[in-house]
Automatic annotation (TrEMBL):
UniProt key word Cell membrane: yes
Major subcellular site: other
Pfam families named in the record: LppX_LprAFG (PF07161)
InterPro entries tied to this protein: LolA/LolB/LppX, LppX/LprAFG
Record flagged with keyword Signal: yes
Subcellular location, record wording: Cell envelope
Origin superkingdom: Bacteria
First and last residue of the signal peptide: 1-21
Protein name: LppX_LprAFG lipoprotein
Species: Actinomadura luzonensis
Record-stated family: Belongs to the LppX/LprAFG lipoprotein family.
Keywords attached to this entry: Cell membrane, Lipoprotein, Membrane, Signal
Length: 275
């Protein structure tokens, strides 16, 4: 139980990295007469340039073995000068079990600082934050499995995936959080989409998306070519995924700091390896 709780918290931190690992802008307006497929191609190029942003996310999933789950929260991300993420998950429900008080995590490099009320009570911790190395959470293959599961929420990779769509079309103009956008809708075949990713990303993406068949998507793109909203929906043999992400504050200054040292305790090694 402890290992699962820690893993869930670390996976939440990993979600931050994967959900935002690369997106950017050199705000050149997209021409309104471009075909929908061309707009997606340009968006895929532009998202790889962003160095910071904010995302609000709601993820609902159903697994035939694990049951239903829901994760809802927000995060700040920066890639320069150093990778850092600040994540708050207000809701973390998995298979009918939840984490009271949610999760707060700050990721810096390979270290995540986690603040989870349930975890602290379980450990009898006297400090609100616990420092965990991602390599400390199970074995490396287990971490890779978590990364595989959440890689589909990496904005740069997801935008690349949707360019595999053969049926994308514009379905109108809409305002998203005050920004004028064009709404595009379509689907993409998982096998073909994975091949569009960098070689070192394909294996994890294939592992993650293997549970789904064709994935339906809706993406709202502003005149600067960057997505403001992304919705994904896929299912296969009882497994389902429904995710909605809102993006904003591209390339704006971000301040992400580790919690004060006197508020942080190390995860006991013996507890960290308990099943």
């Amino acid at each position: 139980m402890l290992k699962r709780t820690i893993s869930l918290a670390a996976a939440g931190a990993a979600l931050v990295v994967a959900a935002v690992a690369g997106c950017g802008t050199n705000a050149q307006p997209i021409q309104v007469n471009l075909a929908a497929s061309e707009v997606l191609a340009q968006a895929a190029q532009k998202t790889a340039e962003v160095t910071s942003y904010t995302v609000d996310a709601v993820l609902n999933a159903t697994d035939t073995q694990e049951g239903s789950g829901r994760v809802q929260g927000r995060m700040l991300y920066q890639s320069k000068p150093d990778l850092a993420v600040d994540l708050t998950l207000d809701t973390v429900d998995m298979g009918g079990k939840s984490l009271p008080g949610g999760v707060r995590a700050v990721l810096q490099g390979d270290t995540v600082y986690v603040k989870v009320e349930a975890l602290n009570k379980m450990l009898g911790a006297t400090k609100p934050w616990i420092k965990v190395s991602l390599d400390q959470v199970g074995d490396r293959s287990q971490v890779d499995q978590y990364l595989a599961q959440i890689q589909q929420f990496d904005l740069a990779n997801v935008t690349k995936l949707v360019t595999a769509s053969k049926d994308v079309k514009s379905v109108g103009n809409e305002s998203v959080n005050g920004d004028d956008t064009t709404h595009y809708s379509g689907s993409f075949p998982v096998d073909a989409a994975v091949l569009l990713l960098p070689a070192d990303k394909q294996s994890l993406a294939r592992t993650s998306l293997a549970e789904l068949k064709d994935v339906k998507f809706d993406i709202w793109v502003a005149s600067d070519g960057l997505p403001r909203k992304l919705a994904l929906n896929g299912q296969k043999e009882g497994d389902k995924l429904d995710a909605t992400l809102f993006f904003k504050d591209f390339n704006k200054p971000v301040t992400i700091q580790a919690p004060p040292a006197d508020q942080v305790g190390d995860l006991p090694q013996a507890q960290g390896t308990t099943n």
